[in-house]
């Protein structure tokens, strides 16, 4: 009797494709499944020693800047495009950190796997409990996914004030507005990703400005307490009705 999409894009998709009757549809707040723990994902909740430990444990080059990907290493997350784009740019003193595990049926190209294994500028980390620390360390979060619902990783990065580049897909575009809260590029396009990466590296001041705007939006709309409270209000409303 109730259908609650977790993003405006999914709400529009359901309506457009007539997957259910429109009167059943409602979105909780402005989106999100569960909200973000803003006490955990906070720049103030990261120690300098933890960042130095990450650099030491994973052979991150001191003095480098870092781009970060967080998620499953599978084709649908855009890993092939990300690796090609990163390698084509040949940025000095910059490393790409891939935080996530390969899935059994990842379907990644052989040249992608070879690059991850052999390129010293690409650091693969299977798993980490302290994702927030990696976001604090990163100068840029790249999210090249082909499909999403309402990606928590973008909200988490927003809460950590990490600048973002992401693909223009449903879910992503509900959080990141191009040259307002981050950079957005045409999904599946390596050329467009390179273009946005190049712009970011030349305009760090603007990227910081966008990250600050997203930080304020996340705090205003996507805190876990607020999302849970709104869900509870709607449960009570349905019980009353």
Task: Throw out a few tags for this protein.
241 residues, alpha/beta, 10 helices
Give a verbal description of the structure.
- By secondary structure, this protein is α/β, with parallel strands linked by helices.
- The chain has 10 helices and 6 strands.
- The chain has a 6-stranded parallel sheet, with helices on both faces.
- Strand 4, helix 6 and strand 5 (164-167) form a beta-alpha-beta unit.
- Helix 3 (79-89) packs across helix 8.
- The longest helix is centred in the C-terminal third of the chain and has 18 residues, at 204-221.
- The chain is globular and about 60 Å long.
- The two termini are 13 Å apart.
- The model has no long low-confidence stretch (mean pLDDT 95).
């Amino acid at each position: 009797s109730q259908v609650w999409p977790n993003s405006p894009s999914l709400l529009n998709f359901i309506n457009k494709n007539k997957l259910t009757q429109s009167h059943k549809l409602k979105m909780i707040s402005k989106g999100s499944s569960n909200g973000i723990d803003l006490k955990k994902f906070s720049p103030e909740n990261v120690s300098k020693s933890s960042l130095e430990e990450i650099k030491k444990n994973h052979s991150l080059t001191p003095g480098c800047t870092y781009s970060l990907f967080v998620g499953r290493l599978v084709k649908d997350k855009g890993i092939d495009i990300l690796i090609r784009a990163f390698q084509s740019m040949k940025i000095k003193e910059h490393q790409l950190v891939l935080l996530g595990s390969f899935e059994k049926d990842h379907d990644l190209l052989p040249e992608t796997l070879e690059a991850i294994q052999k390129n010293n500028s690409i650091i693969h980390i299977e798993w980490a409990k302290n994702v927030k620390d990696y976001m604090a360390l990163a100068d840029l979060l790249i999210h090249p996914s082909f499909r999403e619902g309402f990606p928590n990783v973008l909200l988490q990065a927003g809460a950590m004030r990490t600048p973002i580049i992401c693909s223009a897909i449903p879910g992503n575009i509900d959080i990141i507005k191009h040259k307002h809260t981050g950079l957005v590029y045409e999904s599946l396009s390596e050329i467009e990703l390179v273009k946005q990466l190049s712009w970011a590296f030349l305009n760090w001041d603007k990227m910081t400005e966008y990250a600050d705007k997203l930080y304020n939006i996340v705090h205003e709309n996507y805190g876990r307490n607020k999302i849970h409270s709104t869900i509870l209000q709607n449960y009570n409303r349905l019980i009353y009705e």
